[in-house]
Design a protein that fits this description.
Blueprint lengths: L10 E5 L2 E5 L10 H7 L2 H25 L4 E2 L6 H12 L8 E2 L2 H30 L5 E3 L3 E6 L2 E10 L5 E15 L5 E8 L5 E5 L2 E7 L11 H6 L3 E10 L5 E9 L3 E3 L1 E3 L3 E3 L5 E3 L7 E3 L7
Helix pairs in contact: 2-3, 2-4
Length: 298
């Protein structure tokens, strides 16, 4: 029995902006072919398809070559003619210049036509699924802020809709992820939900700022930068809504480390009124922050 080296099962996984090394899990392409086909980049997807197409045509061209003079009008000992005949057969084109002329040639051609029809159905379905999958175009600020808002210490996150269409019945959640030590002295990663002042937005068009009031009921009450660092704190924003164009639910998430929290600062205003009196949104300032004029808490 062949034993796979442990290093062969080591894979780097990215979740948000964090990287984790997974070990001992079989992550070959065929372990979850559909998910891998849906999650790889477009260049890698079409590159894999092209490699498959080339490999299959080389294989069937070789099978035709083993049959000798089984393809009419193909030049003698011309592997190139057999290769292009294989392409025409696999694609079910059939120009008619070359065709099988004995049982062996018809048998291999039949196998290739069946393979080509199956392959076309699979890749057509995958391409349609990739194109039709709804995606939200939501851009997030580079950091979060922690300052006073309406007289209360508040953790804030901001994001904006990068499309010209609206997202209806939008919902947002804010999660606090941190490392805690159990009574047995074991480190454990915990998830705590942070209540928002306005978790729903009926029509999300431009920008949206989330506010979590840090009062006595908040899981981060009394925590400053040093406490969050000791807990290896991580904040996650989850967005879900109904896209107005596709009519389908879209979702996206964004993570922030404790290093991304700016204490004593607030987000700069991105809404202004132009000279012609028309309100304007400056998305270039989405991540801009400024020190709060009043004393902030951390």
């Amino acid at each position: 029995m062949i034993r796979r080296r442990q290093s062969d099962r080591d894979h780097l996984v990215r979740i948000g902006d964090r990287e984790f090394l997974t070990r001992g899990l079989d992550q070959s392409f065929w372990t979850d072919a559909f998910h891998n086909s849906m999650s790889v980049s477009w260049p890698l997807f079409f590159g894999g398809f092209a490699l498959y197409f080339l490999t299959m045509n080389l294989l069937f061209a070789f099978l035709f070559w083993l049959g000798g003079d089984c393809i009419a009008n193909a030049r003698s000992d011309s592997f190139v003619d057999l290769f292009f005949f294989s392409i025409e057969t696999l694609a079910t084109v059939g120009y008619g210049d070359m065709h099988p002329q004995n049982i062996y040639g018809h048998s291999i051609a039949t196998m290739e036509i069946f393979t080509g029809m199956s392959t076309l159905a699979v890749f057509t379905g995958l391409i349609f699924a990739r194109f039709s999958r709804p995606r939200a175009r939501v851009i997030f600020a580079d950091s979060m802020t922690f300052a006073q808002h309406d007289g209360q210490a508040t953790l804030m996150a901001r994001f904006a809709n990068a499309r010209r269409s609206s997202v209806n019945e939008a919902r947002a959640e804010l999660w606090f992820v941190y490392t805690d030590t159990t009574a047995e002295g074991v480190g454990f990663r915990r998830f705590r939900h942070l209540a928002l002042k306005q978790p729903r937005n009926p029509i999300f068009v431009f920008s949206w700022t989330l506010f979590h009031e840090v009062d006595e009921n908040s899981p981060i009450f009394g925590h400053g930068r040093e406490q969050l660092e000791a807990m290896d704190a991580y904040f996650m924003v989850v967005f879900v809504g109904l896209d107005d164009v596709s009519g389908q639910n879209v979702n996206v998430r964004q993570g922030y480390s404790w290093r991304d929290v700016k204490f004593g600062e607030v987000f700069a205003d991105i809404l202004s009124v132009g000279e012609n009196g028309v309100p304007q949104i400056d998305y270039r300032r989405l991540s801009a922050t400024e020190p709060q004029e009043t004393d902030g808490e951390d």
